[in-house]
Amino acid sequence: MTTPLPQVSVVVPTFNRREVLPRALDSILGQTFGAFELIVVDDGSTDGTAELVERSYPDIHFLRQENRGVSAARNAGIATAQGEWIAFLDSDDAWLPEKLERQMQALEREPVHRFCHTDEIWIRDGQRVNPASKYAKSGGWAYHSCLPHCVISPSSVLMHRDLLRETGNFDESLEVCEDYDLWLRVTARDPVLFLDEQLLFKYGGHQDQLSTKHWGMDRYRIKALQRVLEDGLVSGKDERMTRQTLVDKLEILVEGSRKRGNDALLQELEPQLAQAKAILASPLS
Question: Which residue range is the domain that position 83 belongs to?
Protein backbone atom coordinates (compact mmCIF):
# COMPACT_ATOMS: atom_id res chain seq x y z
CA MET A 1 0.00 0.00 0.00
CA THR A 2 1.40 3.37 -1.04
CA THR A 3 1.80 5.95 1.72
CA PRO A 4 0.03 9.19 0.75
CA LEU A 5 2.20 12.28 0.38
CA PRO A 6 1.89 14.83 3.18
CA GLN A 7 -0.08 18.00 2.50
CA VAL A 8 2.37 20.10 4.53
CA SER A 9 6.12 19.87 5.00
CA VAL A 10 7.35 21.55 8.19
CA VAL A 11 10.98 22.70 7.99
CA VAL A 12 12.87 23.37 11.23
CA PRO A 13 16.43 24.73 10.90
CA THR A 14 18.52 24.47 14.04
CA PHE A 15 22.01 25.28 15.24
CA ASN A 16 23.15 24.55 18.79
CA ARG A 17 19.62 24.80 20.20
CA ARG A 18 19.54 21.43 21.94
CA GLU A 19 17.96 22.86 25.09
CA VAL A 20 14.95 24.45 23.37
CA LEU A 21 14.57 22.26 20.27
CA PRO A 22 12.27 19.72 22.01
CA ARG A 23 9.79 22.52 22.78
CA ALA A 24 9.58 23.33 19.07
CA LEU A 25 9.36 19.72 17.92
CA ASP A 26 6.76 18.75 20.51
CA SER A 27 4.61 21.71 19.45
CA ILE A 28 4.66 20.38 15.87
CA LEU A 29 3.98 16.78 16.80
CA GLY A 30 1.06 17.96 18.94
CA GLN A 31 -0.75 19.64 16.04
CA THR A 32 -4.45 18.93 15.55
CA PHE A 33 -3.73 18.78 11.81
CA GLY A 34 -1.99 15.52 11.04
CA ALA A 35 -1.20 15.41 7.31
CA PHE A 36 2.35 16.74 7.59
CA GLU A 37 5.94 15.63 7.54
CA LEU A 38 8.56 17.08 9.85
CA ILE A 39 12.03 17.88 8.51
CA VAL A 40 14.74 19.03 10.92
CA VAL A 41 17.93 20.41 9.40
CA ASP A 42 20.90 20.52 11.76
CA ASP A 43 23.21 23.27 10.53
CA GLY A 44 26.41 21.85 11.96
CA SER A 45 25.50 21.83 15.67
CA THR A 46 28.18 20.84 18.16
CA ASP A 47 26.00 20.57 21.27
CA GLY A 48 24.61 17.08 20.88
CA THR A 49 21.57 18.07 18.81
CA ALA A 50 21.96 15.08 16.49
CA GLU A 51 22.10 12.62 19.36
CA LEU A 52 19.02 14.21 20.97
CA VAL A 53 16.96 13.98 17.78
CA GLU A 54 18.07 10.47 16.91
CA ARG A 55 17.29 9.26 20.42
CA SER A 56 14.06 11.13 21.22
CA TYR A 57 12.58 11.75 17.75
CA PRO A 58 13.63 8.75 15.66
CA ASP A 59 10.69 8.95 13.24
CA ILE A 60 11.23 12.45 11.89
CA HIS A 61 13.23 13.31 8.77
CA PHE A 62 16.59 14.50 10.08
CA LEU A 63 19.25 16.13 7.88
CA ARG A 64 22.75 17.22 8.87
CA GLN A 65 25.00 19.66 7.05
CA GLU A 66 28.11 21.70 7.70
CA ASN A 67 27.39 25.09 9.23
CA ARG A 68 26.21 27.24 6.33
CA GLY A 69 23.59 29.45 7.96
CA VAL A 70 19.84 29.44 8.50
CA SER A 71 19.00 30.14 4.85
CA ALA A 72 20.98 27.15 3.63
CA ALA A 73 19.33 24.99 6.30
CA ARG A 74 15.83 26.08 5.31
CA ASN A 75 16.65 25.60 1.64
CA ALA A 76 17.91 22.08 2.32
CA GLY A 77 14.62 21.31 4.00
CA ILE A 78 12.65 22.79 1.10
CA ALA A 79 14.61 20.64 -1.36
CA THR A 80 13.65 17.53 0.59
CA ALA A 81 10.02 18.47 1.21
CA GLN A 82 7.27 16.40 -0.39
CA GLY A 83 4.28 18.48 0.70
CA GLU A 84 2.29 20.86 -1.47
CA TRP A 85 2.58 23.45 1.32
CA ILE A 86 5.73 24.46 3.20
CA ALA A 87 5.71 25.69 6.80
CA PHE A 88 8.66 26.96 8.81
CA LEU A 89 9.35 26.92 12.53
CA ASP A 90 12.49 28.40 14.04
CA SER A 91 13.89 26.03 16.62
CA ASP A 92 13.53 28.54 19.48
CA ASP A 93 9.81 29.16 18.78
CA ALA A 94 6.73 27.00 19.35
CA TRP A 95 3.31 26.58 17.76
CA LEU A 96 -0.06 26.41 19.45
CA PRO A 97 -1.80 23.07 18.75
CA GLU A 98 -4.32 24.48 16.23
CA LYS A 99 -1.82 26.46 14.16
CA LEU A 100 -1.66 24.33 11.02
CA GLU A 101 -5.32 23.35 11.14
CA ARG A 102 -6.50 26.96 11.38
CA GLN A 103 -4.26 28.02 8.49
CA MET A 104 -5.30 25.14 6.23
CA GLN A 105 -8.96 25.91 6.94
CA ALA A 106 -8.40 29.59 6.10
CA LEU A 107 -6.66 28.70 2.83
CA GLU A 108 -9.49 26.35 1.88
CA ARG A 109 -11.94 29.22 2.36
CA GLU A 110 -9.81 31.56 0.26
CA PRO A 111 -8.04 29.35 -2.30
CA VAL A 112 -6.76 32.33 -4.29
CA HIS A 113 -4.02 32.75 -1.67
CA ARG A 114 -0.70 30.92 -1.75
CA PHE A 115 0.78 32.45 1.40
CA CYS A 116 -0.65 32.62 4.91
CA HIS A 117 0.81 34.05 8.09
CA THR A 118 -0.57 34.57 11.58
CA ASP A 119 -0.27 36.73 14.64
CA GLU A 120 1.96 35.62 17.49
CA ILE A 121 2.67 35.91 21.19
CA TRP A 122 6.00 37.55 22.00
CA ILE A 123 8.06 36.24 24.90
CA ARG A 124 11.21 38.19 25.83
CA ASP A 125 13.49 37.00 28.62
CA GLY A 126 10.69 34.79 29.88
CA GLN A 127 8.10 37.57 30.02
CA ARG A 128 5.19 38.21 27.68
CA VAL A 129 5.53 41.58 25.95
CA ASN A 130 3.53 43.57 23.44
CA PRO A 131 5.31 44.21 20.12
CA ALA A 132 5.72 47.78 18.92
CA SER A 133 3.09 49.08 16.52
CA LYS A 134 5.65 49.17 13.69
CA TYR A 135 5.51 45.36 13.66
CA ALA A 136 1.75 45.27 13.07
CA LYS A 137 0.78 42.55 10.62
CA SER A 138 -1.59 42.71 7.68
CA GLY A 139 -2.94 40.80 4.72
CA GLY A 140 -3.83 41.54 1.12
CA TRP A 141 -1.26 43.40 -0.94
CA ALA A 142 1.16 43.81 1.96
CA TYR A 143 4.30 44.91 0.10
CA HIS A 144 4.16 48.48 1.44
CA SER A 145 3.92 47.34 5.05
CA CYS A 146 6.85 44.94 4.54
CA LEU A 147 9.23 47.65 3.30
CA PRO A 148 10.27 49.36 6.58
CA HIS A 149 10.73 46.23 8.72
CA CYS A 150 10.27 42.49 8.65
CA VAL A 151 6.67 42.16 9.83
CA ILE A 152 6.17 38.50 8.87
CA SER A 153 7.68 35.88 11.17
CA PRO A 154 9.05 32.78 9.43
CA SER A 155 7.55 30.65 12.20
CA SER A 156 4.07 31.85 11.25
CA VAL A 157 4.33 31.18 7.50
CA LEU A 158 2.57 28.53 5.46
CA MET A 159 3.21 28.92 1.73
CA HIS A 160 2.59 26.96 -1.45
CA ARG A 161 5.68 25.39 -2.94
CA ASP A 162 4.80 26.83 -6.39
CA LEU A 163 5.24 30.32 -4.96
CA LEU A 164 8.73 29.39 -3.78
CA ARG A 165 9.55 28.11 -7.27
CA GLU A 166 8.58 31.54 -8.64
CA THR A 167 10.32 33.69 -6.04
CA GLY A 168 13.35 31.53 -5.40
CA ASN A 169 14.36 30.29 -1.98
CA PHE A 170 16.05 32.08 0.92
CA ASP A 171 19.16 34.02 -0.13
CA GLU A 172 22.12 32.17 1.36
CA SER A 173 24.41 35.17 0.89
CA LEU A 174 22.51 37.14 3.56
CA GLU A 175 23.66 36.46 7.12
CA VAL A 176 20.48 38.05 8.49
CA CYS A 177 17.30 39.62 7.06
CA GLU A 178 16.93 36.65 4.71
CA ASP A 179 13.25 36.54 5.69
CA TYR A 180 12.78 40.25 4.92
CA ASP A 181 14.32 39.62 1.51
CA LEU A 182 12.06 36.68 0.64
CA TRP A 183 8.87 38.32 1.92
CA LEU A 184 9.54 41.35 -0.30
CA ARG A 185 9.81 39.03 -3.30
CA VAL A 186 6.61 37.26 -2.25
CA THR A 187 4.50 40.33 -1.50
CA ALA A 188 5.61 42.07 -4.70
CA ARG A 189 3.95 39.19 -6.60
CA ASP A 190 1.05 37.93 -4.50
CA PRO A 191 -1.49 39.09 -1.94
CA VAL A 192 -1.08 37.35 1.39
CA LEU A 193 -3.63 35.90 3.77
CA PHE A 194 -3.28 37.13 7.34
CA LEU A 195 -4.97 35.05 10.03
CA ASP A 196 -5.51 37.44 12.92
CA GLU A 197 -5.00 34.83 15.61
CA GLN A 198 -2.06 34.35 17.96
CA LEU A 199 -1.02 30.84 16.97
CA LEU A 200 2.61 30.69 18.02
CA PHE A 201 5.01 31.73 20.74
CA LYS A 202 7.92 33.80 19.42
CA TYR A 203 10.76 33.70 21.91
CA GLY A 204 13.51 36.31 22.07
CA GLY A 205 16.10 37.89 24.25
CA HIS A 206 18.66 35.08 24.11
CA GLN A 207 22.22 35.86 23.15
CA ASP A 208 22.45 33.54 20.15
CA GLN A 209 19.76 35.37 18.19
CA LEU A 210 21.16 36.49 14.85
CA SER A 211 19.57 39.91 15.24
CA THR A 212 21.72 40.55 18.33
CA LYS A 213 24.97 39.57 16.61
CA HIS A 214 24.97 41.94 13.65
CA TRP A 215 25.38 45.71 13.80
CA GLY A 216 23.56 47.69 11.13
CA MET A 217 21.06 45.11 9.96
CA ASP A 218 19.88 47.65 7.40
CA ARG A 219 23.01 46.68 5.43
CA TYR A 220 21.25 43.44 4.56
CA ARG A 221 17.86 45.07 4.01
CA ILE A 222 19.53 47.43 1.52
CA LYS A 223 20.73 44.43 -0.47
CA ALA A 224 17.20 43.07 -0.51
CA LEU A 225 15.76 46.39 -1.70
CA GLN A 226 18.40 46.67 -4.41
CA ARG A 227 17.56 43.16 -5.58
CA VAL A 228 13.86 43.98 -5.87
CA LEU A 229 14.70 47.02 -7.99
CA GLU A 230 17.31 45.27 -10.13
CA ASP A 231 14.93 42.38 -10.83
CA GLY A 232 12.15 44.78 -11.84
CA LEU A 233 9.66 43.30 -9.39
CA VAL A 234 7.91 46.62 -8.72
CA SER A 235 6.84 49.62 -10.78
CA GLY A 236 4.99 52.90 -10.39
CA LYS A 237 4.11 53.82 -6.82
CA ASP A 238 5.63 50.60 -5.44
CA GLU A 239 8.93 51.34 -7.13
CA ARG A 240 9.01 54.89 -5.79
CA MET A 241 8.28 53.71 -2.25
CA THR A 242 11.02 51.11 -2.58
CA ARG A 243 13.51 53.72 -3.72
CA GLN A 244 12.51 56.05 -0.88
CA THR A 245 12.98 53.23 1.64
CA LEU A 246 16.39 52.50 0.12
CA VAL A 247 17.42 56.16 0.55
CA ASP A 248 16.13 56.20 4.13
CA LYS A 249 18.07 53.09 5.11
CA LEU A 250 21.25 54.25 3.37
CA GLU A 251 21.05 57.55 5.24
CA ILE A 252 20.73 55.74 8.56
CA LEU A 253 23.74 53.57 7.78
CA VAL A 254 25.86 56.49 6.58
CA GLU A 255 25.13 58.39 9.79
CA GLY A 256 25.91 55.31 11.88
CA SER A 257 29.16 54.74 10.01
CA ARG A 258 30.23 58.34 10.64
CA LYS A 259 29.55 58.01 14.36
CA ARG A 260 31.53 54.77 14.49
CA GLY A 261 34.38 56.15 12.40
CA ASN A 262 33.95 53.36 9.88
CA ASP A 263 35.61 55.05 6.90
CA ALA A 264 35.73 51.89 4.78
CA LEU A 265 31.97 51.42 5.01
CA LEU A 266 31.40 55.13 4.39
CA GLN A 267 33.37 54.92 1.15
CA GLU A 268 31.13 52.07 0.07
CA LEU A 269 27.82 53.60 1.14
CA GLU A 270 28.12 57.27 0.21
CA PRO A 271 28.23 56.67 -3.58
CA GLN A 272 25.24 54.31 -3.24
CA LEU A 273 23.31 56.98 -1.34
CA ALA A 274 24.14 59.67 -3.91
CA GLN A 275 23.01 57.43 -6.75
CA ALA A 276 19.82 56.39 -4.96
CA LYS A 277 18.93 60.03 -4.24
CA ALA A 278 19.56 61.03 -7.85
CA ILE A 279 17.30 58.29 -9.20
CA LEU A 280 14.59 59.13 -6.66
CA ALA A 281 14.70 62.80 -7.67
CA SER A 282 14.50 62.09 -11.40
CA PRO A 283 11.19 62.68 -13.24
CA LEU A 284 11.03 58.99 -14.19
CA SER A 285 10.98 57.77 -10.57
Answer: 8-208
pLDDT of 280 reads 94
Candidates 28, 73, 25; CA nearest to 53 is 25
- Three-class secondary structure of residue 111 per DSSP: coil
Residue 133: closest CA among 115, 145, 118, 116:
145
Query: 257 and 151, same structural domain?
Result: no
27 Cβ contact list (under 8 Å, min separation 6)? 89, 94, 95, 96, 97
Per-residue pLDDT reduced to its tens digit, 163-210 = 999 999 999 999 999 999 999 999 999 999 999 999 999 998 755 555
Global pTM reads: 0.93
Does 113 fall in a domain? yes
Judge if 161 and 249 occupy the same domain.
no
Same domain membership, residue 122 and residue 15: yes
Checking if the pLDDT of 212 tops 60, the result is no
**Whether residues 230 and 195 fall in one domain:** no
Claim to verify: residue 269 and residue 142 sit in the same structural domain? no
Side chain identity at 285, as an amino acid letter?
S
Mapping DSSP to helix (H, G, I), strand (E, B) and coil, where does residue 65 land? strand
- Give the pLDDT confidence of 227-267 residue by residue, as tens digits: 999 999 999 999 999 999 999 999 999 999 999 889 899 99
The domain boundary residue, chosen from 208, 233, 264: 208
